[in-house]
Amino acid sequence: MSFSSTFPQLRLRPTRWGLIFLGALLVLGFAAVNTSNNALMALLGFALASYVASGAWSRQVLALVHARVESPRELFAGRAAMVELELANPSRWLPAYGLVVRDQDDRPVLTEALLPSSARRRHGVEVVCQRRGWRELGPWRLDVLMPLGFFTKSKRLLAGRRVLVYPSLLPSGGPVAGVVAALRRGDHLRARGREGDVLQLRDYRAGDDRRQLHWKQTARQQRPIVVDRQQRAEQQPFLVLDPRLSDPSDPRLRERFERMVSEVATVVVRSLNEGCAVGLVIGSTVIPPVASPGRRGRLLRPLAEVEPMPTDAPPPAVVAGRTIATWRVEKGG
Amino acid sequence: MTEAVRYRRLAAVLLLWGIVPLPWLYIIQPPFWGVAALVGGWLLIRPRTVPRLSPLTSNLIGLVILAVVLFVGGARVGPLRPLGHLLLLVASVRAVGVRDRRTFLGLLPALFLVWLVALASSTHVSVLLYFAVSAVLWWWVGMEVTLLGVVRAPAAAGMSLVRLRHVLPAAAMAVLLAVPVFVAMPRLGSPWIAGRGGVQSVTGFSSRVRLSGVGHIRRSQEVALTMRALHGRPLRPEWSRLRATALEQVTADSWAPRRPTGPATGAGTMLWLHGERPLTATEELEITLLRPQRFLFVPTAAVAVRVPLPVTRDPSGGLVVDGEEPASLTYSVWVRSDGPLPFTDAPQPRATRPPQHPEVRSLARRIVAGHRGTAERAAAVESFLRAHYRYTLEGTHRIGPDPIKWFLLEGRQGHCEYFAGAMVVLLESSGLPARMAAGYSGGEVNPAGDELVVRQANAHTWVEAWLGPAAGWQAFDPTPAAGIPDFATGTMGAGVRVLWERVQAGWDRYVLTYGLGEQLLVLEGLVTTMEGLARRLHPGPLAAAGAGVLFLWWVLAALLRRGRHASPRRTKRRPPAAWVMERLRRRLARRGVEVPSWATLRWVAAAGVRCWPGLDGELADLLARAEGELYGGRAWRATDHLRARRQWAWVRRRMRSGGDAGPAGEMVACRRGDTPV
Fold it and tell me: Do B663 and A88 touch (CB under 8 A)?
């Protein structure tokens, strides 16, 4: 029964040194058996036993050592973020030598020379995503080469962990600064939480305030339903993003669209940092204004997910508030 | 400490350790291991100085090495000497040039071969210690080199990355695992590679004497038999000459007994060795053979034997057990107080005789010149060999196709088999029938003097010469007195000596010359043990059949379990992480936490974190997995069970120790390049 079928999550690859050792073992075995030289026999026995002992050790280490990966809370495209990686060796006796964590491109992201028994260690690993949207973090791999390096034994660490990458943030200045200044000047009332008339009932989305849950409807429909209320504040500020492109497959247009999304995200982040509430209209989707920087994910998430749409898509929704700025990719620049 | 320094120090340690046994061996001459020692010492003391050798200089050094090795020669000792010289010089020069991982790995095979030459050339028992330390050293070096390859930049300056407390158990485990491999690996000894084998390196009785073996011989302290006087009177030294048979089938290098011819006597029958006669003036002795072989051993002064087994007699007067030899055998012997009676079986024409050589014949003529009587001639040969030849158990190098000729004309030293064989050849050359007798001589008598312990170190051969129908076969012993095992009383000093010799003999027999014969003995011992166990347990056929069925069921279950583990389907056992959460819930309840009946996994995990804040990471991981198992449709395998059990054991230990953040819970920042994920 092969290694991979016995341990389906693990991978075994002989190293170059391991192959050389195997070849030398064959030669040594041939010489020992033929000559009946007991020094060679003892050496052959020791070499074979070392092979077994080394394999058992690394196999145990691989089975026991586990890693916990904490994805970063916010990940902006083009910016480094810290992934927290905790390696723990729960074995009472066996130390783990030479642990290497590799990313999906087989590059080592972390090397742990020695993780003693009953110990764990936390590391921060910087990751950078160049594009916004849902991205796969991993699969990463934990390699154990030790103790004698005959085989590289691996197991997967991050299988199918998806993270949402927010749009990249642009440097201050330019049109972004103007929009932020306009937001700051506005005389808008802050959103007042759960006050106001009921506007609509809708499905719960990540980031929604759990206090807005409509419990009766949730129980009746067996899925979380929240209630949207009409804010009493008049002249709520909105940023409008029109995702329609004349040719969504045109790379130049797409690049400009990405730039536009980044501008909106930058405005959102900066305005919230400065204490200005802001809402968002992306095509037909309306995100009510948010005032707290801690809840900016409600605005950034649709920005991360938005995709260019053809021109026959519905135009941006018309909202009752004040439109601070509208972003649209005009044909020809 | 830079990488180069680390590798240079490793090379120095390996080089120096490899040459440790060489000063005690003849195989490598001092200047060569001296050079290696100097290089190793210099590398150890000044590892930062890395000389740069131009290709021209390297080539010149290579030529000089070749010239020196050829000039010194040594091929007459065997190819190992010039090869060892070459290897040592090459390893020394390459060790000087180590400056990085690549050059070190290039040097490693040469260092290994140096160590192998030293190990394979050592035969002293102390090499066992050398091997054990080497095992630790090679593990340490292997781990260090592998780890340096993984980590690249050594973290701690001057410190080894590998801990000795981790290496020691691993190396010990490897050595322990190596023992069964050493014991069980087949010894083919192919003649086209191995050359002549079959060396008997420990003393001991053998009904087939071979003289072609080379190598050192150790005295074996294994007890062969005990002899007890039944009437309590002290044993006489002459009774300790115990004869098995005479070896009359002779080839160039081997001596063997003739086959038994007569019918087997019944068990317990009195055997008269020299015809039936009254047992007056005889003493009854009891002999116990601890590991009986074919032949019984009887004192040369014996007149009658009673054996509780069927026995046949060979033409030379030897008693042969008919059928399978028992585990031990006790029999009675009656011996005369006034000297042995000679055997009178007439010399028979032999199909095989020792080869005759003109030089040996001429030597025989010179020895017996001036002696007319047969007894005088035999005594002359006996005293000639005793006076002019040296007894030794030391190793010999080249014996040639006829060992007796080599002994008489070239070597002039050897053990009792050479002396006895030489005397037989000399007597035969001078026209006197003779044969080699084999058995034991001497032993260790207890202080009361009534019990004798005979060891394999007392194995001995002597000569029986035919002096005519009246005198029959008379015994002569050409071995010098120093080589004849003596009849001695046991003392404290003798006990220590016996112990040391036993260690050396064990080392020689079970390590140095361990071969197919010993393998068969081990196998036989195993079978005997199993049979004894079976006899002790008295399993009936039904019980044996039941045990067989149980064993088969166990094998089948193990195979099925393996198959199930291999399949990605869910096992029938409980979900592992959820099981751990359940244990946590019970642990919380025992701790006094009021766990409600509706407590969810998250509630339990949160309560666990409140009680043991340091376990937050572990519990979060367990919680995620448990939810995945119970609600997320996540399949689990045998490895998950193992992991969960280990994790729970770890969590429990942390709980007992207060559940702090762990010994190494620090945050370690690790930078990496600008890499898209």
Answer: no
B176 neighbourhood in chain A, CB within 8 Å: 49
Alpha carbon of B363: minimum distance to chain A alpha carbons (Å): 39
Task: Tell me what the mean pLDDT of segment B195-210 comes to.
Answer: 62
Task: Report yes or no: B111 and B54 within 8 Å, Cβ to Cβ.
Answer: no
Tell me which DSSP letter residue A147 carries: T
Report the C-alpha gap between B419 and B411 in whole angstroms. 12
Per-residue model confidence (pLDDT) at position B76: 66
Size of interface A-B (CB pairs under 8 A): 219
CB B187 within 8 A of CB B516: yes
B566 pLDDT band, cuts 50/70/90, is very low
Give pLDDT, residue A200.
73
- Report yes or no: B305 and B332 within 8 Å, Cβ to Cβ: yes
The answer on pLDDT for B44 being more than 70 is yes
> Which chain B positions have a beta carbon within 8 Å of A80's beta carbon?
674
Average pLDDT rounded to a whole number, residues B235-259? 85
Is the confidence at residue B666, as pLDDT, over 50? no
Q: Could you say which residues from 419 to 438 on chain B have a Cβ atom under 8 Å away from some Cβ of chain A?
A: none
Helix axes A297-305 and A251-273, enclosed angle (nearest 10): 180
pLDDT higher than 90, residue B17: yes
Q: Does B50 touch chain A (CB under 8 A)?
A: no
Specify the pairing of strand A151-156 against strand A278-282.
Answer: unpaired
Q: What is the pLDDT of residue B381?
A: 92
Mean pLDDT by 10 residues, chain A (333 residues): 56 84 89 81 90 87 83 84 86 86 83 85 85 82 82 80 86 76 60 61 80 88 82 70 84 87 88 81 85 82 88 80 79 50
Contact B150 A88 (CB under 8 A): no
Ordered DSSP codes for A180-222: HHHHHH---PPP-TT-SEEEEEEE--TT--GGGB-HHHHHHHT
**Cβ–Cβ gap B119/A39 under 8 Å:** yes
Given an 8 Å threshold on Cβ–Cβ distance, is B178 in contact with A88? no
Nearest to A300 by CA among A11, A73, A44: A73
ipTM of the complex: 0.71
| Helix axis angle, B638-656 to A38-64, nearest 10° | 80
> How open is the CA angle A134-A135-A137, to the nearest 5 degrees?
140
Per the DSSP assignment, residues forming a β-bridge with B390 are B413
Question: Which residues from B are below 8 Å from A137, CB to CB?
Answer: 677
Tell how many helices (H) and how many strands (E) occur in chain B. Answer: 19, 20
Distance in angstroms (rounded) separating the CA atoms of residues B28 and B18 = 12
Q: pLDDT digits over B73-86, tens only?
A: 766 666 778 888 88
User: In this structure, are residues B40 and B19 in contact, taking their beta carbons and an 8 Å threshold?
Assistant: yes
Query: With bands split at pLDDT 50, 70 and 90, how would you rate the model's confidence at B469?
Result: confident
Residue with tokens 């690249």: B152
Contact assessment for residue A53 and residue B177, using Cβ atoms and an 8 Å cutoff: yes
Is B639's Cβ below 8 Å from some Cβ in A?
Answer: yes
| CB-nearest partner of A147 from B170, B194, B666 | B170
CB neighbours of residue B475 within 10 Å: 16
- Kindly determine whether residue A121 and residue B666, on different chains, have CB atoms separated by under 8 Å: yes
The lowest-confidence range among A75-84, A205-214, B155-164, B560-569 is B560-569
- Classified as helix, coil or strand, A127 is strand
What is the residue whose two structure tokens read 């009774």?
B239
User: How many CA atoms within 13 Å lie on the side-chain side of A199?
Assistant: 15
Greatest C-alpha distance within chain A = 98
| Beta-carbon contacts of residue B196 (< 8 Å; ≥ 6 apart) | B212, B213
Phi/psi at B239 (nearest 5 deg)? Answer: -75, -15
Q: What is the rounded CA–CA span in Å between residue A191 and residue B535? A: 93
Contacts of A44 in chain B (CB under 8 A): 181, 185
